[in-house]
């Protein structure tokens, strides 16, 4: 592996830096950096950062697209993650180089903002930097490159928007296609359509439209995973599935037309908080003391029962005696339910979480057509389902192994967010690198109206966009040059939706093939990739404080090993 910053040059650099930072005041040197701080400037700093960012892009390139490969990551404890998800892979990689970390950062932002496109954004940013480096080699100044990139980015966004088409929450089939495209690179089995329908159904269920504007809070789709069965058994629960069991064996296991009380109050007799002491001098006193406690618990249960509730979920504890009385009243209960589940139960059933049993009234109760305890893969769960117009739902993910359900969860997550992004922005574009190819075509024309060096930068940006169709083809084992030539020809002929049909190994109209992505995913990826590339290009000085506990600290700019390897 080549070391971009050999130790000797680091040492030289330190000396240079020390000299440079010693301003002279009346013959007295002034030190401006603390002892142990390291600094790289100019080309070295730039090259080092670019190399690191490129390395990250190269590391996950092979996972792009439906024919992309997976990565197996083993952490220091031996835990294994197998994934194709850019954000997941990068967060597991424990990257340290500051510029490389920016790549991780944009992939995380992409994940948070739109869910999908986490590989795309990093591959794009890495390639933009690679193309910029070629210009730096031709003595084009970084400021000219960043200026060209900024202009190119604005134009690129204009182009994707212009090729996008409208979609709404009611276009179920199109949403299913978007979900399938989002999941296509992950191992979700032979029938992604069924899974995609579950996803779209869930998203539709929780979407809220006011004044023609649909908003979706993806937090309201709860993902529960259970190993066992097959991916095909993944199902939508119109309500909430909770990882709990019914507290008492003589309680009913099932309640139809359930009236549900949600309590943030303990069904227990409070321990005294002060150091009070009760002296009991006779067995009768003891008896009446216990009887009094039981009476209080019974009272609580009576109050709950009086509201008409036949199901109780408590965020706190439920005393044994209280359980017994509830069982006698035919009430089904679960205790120590997570706060997040309580909130979702409230949204699904329409109940109000109450923190005082005295204040509980029938108006606070929620409704579910069916509440029942069921065994899933050997573990009990309580299903609160058949809710009326639930505002929170659950997808119960199934699959043959832990690794499979984990990856299916990531796929479902991408699909949910993609469907939501498509509905919220109301636009989609063709996939398979079609919009990227169109951007490249338009940019090359657009560049002609700029003076020499800026033109080079805009063309470099155009080349960088083509990395997406090129990588999709490459990962599918296709001849990339052949594919790019055909792709450009199609776009020149006006076929804006022409892309790499990786499953059939040819250039096709991706929209006709129903391979479509949300516009929001593309906009976010293009903007963050170019912003990150720009930011890295503008750095010409890296000053690193000495690392604590790390013998000697890192060379300036970070880990030298990151910059070697695949480039
Ligand atoms: P990311 O993490 O960036 O979403 P993926 O591995 O999911 O990366 O790949 C996404 C890319 O794969 C998108 O450009 C998408 O349009 C493309 N894609 C998905 N399905 C197909 C397909 N059947 N044919 C061609 N391209 C596809
Ligand atoms: Mg994806």
Proportion in helices: 40-55%
Assigned CATH superfamily of the largest domain: GroEL-like equatorial domain
CATH second-level architecture of the largest domain: Orthogonal Bundle
- Weakly predicted, low-confidence segments: 1-5, 550-567
Q: How far is it from the N-terminal to the C-terminal residue, by CA?
A: 10 Å
Count of the separate structural domains? 4
Provide the gyration radius in Å: 30 Å
> How confident is the prediction overall: mean pLDDT?
87
What is the global morphology?
elongated
The CATH class of the largest domain is: Mainly Alpha
Biggest sheet layout: 7 strands, mixed
Strand content: 15-25%
Which structural class fits the helix and strand makeup?
alpha+beta
As for the CATH topology of the largest domain, it is GROEL, domain 1
Q: Helical stretch count? A: 17
Hetero groups in this structure are: adenosine-5'-diphosphate, magnesium ion
Kindly state the number of beta strands: 23
């Amino acid at each position: 592996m080549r070391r971009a910053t050999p130790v000797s040059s680091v040492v030289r650099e330190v000396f240079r830096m020390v000299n440079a930072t010693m301003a002279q005041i009346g013959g007295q040197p002034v030190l401006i950096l603390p002892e142990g701080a390291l600094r790289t400037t100019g080309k070295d700093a730039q090259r080092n950062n670019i190399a690191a960012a490129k390395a990250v892009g190269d590391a996950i390139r092979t996972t792009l697209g439906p024919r992309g490969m997976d990565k197996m990551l083993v952490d220091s404890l031996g835990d294994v993650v197998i994934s194709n998800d850019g954000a997941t892979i990068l967060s597991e990689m424990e990257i340290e180089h500051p510029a490389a970390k920016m790549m991780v950062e944009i992939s995380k932002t992409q994940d948070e903002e739109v869910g999908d496109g986490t590989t795309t954004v990093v591959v794009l940013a890495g390639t933009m930097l690679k193309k910029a480096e070629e210009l730096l080699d031709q003595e084009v100044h970084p400021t000219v490159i960043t200026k060209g990139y900024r202009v190119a980015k604005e134009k690129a966004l204009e182009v994707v928007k212009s090729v996008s088409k409208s979609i709404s929450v009611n276009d179920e089939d199109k949403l299913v296609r978007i979900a399938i495209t989002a999941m296509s690179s992950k191992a979700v089995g032979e029938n992604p359509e069924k899974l995609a329908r579950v996803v779209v159904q869930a998203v539709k269920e929780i979407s809220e439209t006011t004044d023609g504007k649909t908003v979706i809070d993806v937090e309201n789709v709860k993902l529960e995973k259970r190993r066992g069965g097959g991916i095909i058994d993944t199902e939508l629960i119109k309500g909430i599935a909770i990882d709990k069991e019914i507290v008492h064996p003589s309680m009913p296991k099932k309640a139809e037309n359930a009236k549900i009380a949600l309590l943030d109050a303990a069904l227990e007799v409070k321990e005294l908080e002060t150091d009070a002491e009760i002296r009991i001098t006779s067995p009768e006193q003891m008896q009446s003391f216990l009887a009094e406690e039981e009476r209080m618990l019974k009272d609580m249960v009576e109050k709950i029962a009086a509201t008409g509730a036949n199901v109780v979920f408590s965020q706190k504890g439920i005393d044994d005696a209280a359980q017994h009385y509830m069982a006698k009243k035919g009430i089904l209960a679960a205790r120590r339910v997570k706060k997040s589940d309580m909130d979702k139960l409230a949204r699904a059933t329409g109940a109000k979480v109450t923190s005082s049993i005295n204040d509980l009234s029938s108006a606070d109760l929620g409704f579910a057509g069916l509440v029942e305890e069921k065994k899933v893969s050997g573990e009990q769960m309580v299903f609160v389902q058949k809710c009326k117009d639930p505002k929170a739902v659950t997808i119960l993910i199934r699959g043959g192994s832990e690794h499979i359900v984990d990856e299916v969860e990531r796929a479902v997550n991408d699909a949910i967010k993609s469907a939501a992004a498509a509905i919220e922005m109301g636009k989609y574009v063709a996939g398979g690198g079609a919009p990227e190819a169109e951007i490249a075509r338009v940019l090359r024309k657009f560049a002609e109206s700029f003076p020499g060096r800026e033109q080079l930068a805009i063309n470099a940006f155009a080349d960088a966009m083509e990395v997406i169709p090129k990588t999709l083809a490459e990962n599918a084992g296709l001849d990339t040059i052949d594919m790019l030539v055909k792709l450009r020809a199609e776009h020149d002929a006006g076929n804006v939706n022409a892309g790499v049909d990786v499953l059939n190994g040819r250039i096709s109209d991706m929209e006709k093939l129903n391979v479509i992505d949300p516009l929001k995913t593309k906009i976010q990826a293009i903007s963050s990739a170019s912003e990150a590339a720009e930011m890295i290009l503008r750095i010409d000085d890296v000053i690193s404080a000495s690392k604590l506990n790390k013998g000697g600290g890192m060379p300036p700019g970070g880990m030298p090993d990151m910059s070697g390897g695949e480039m």
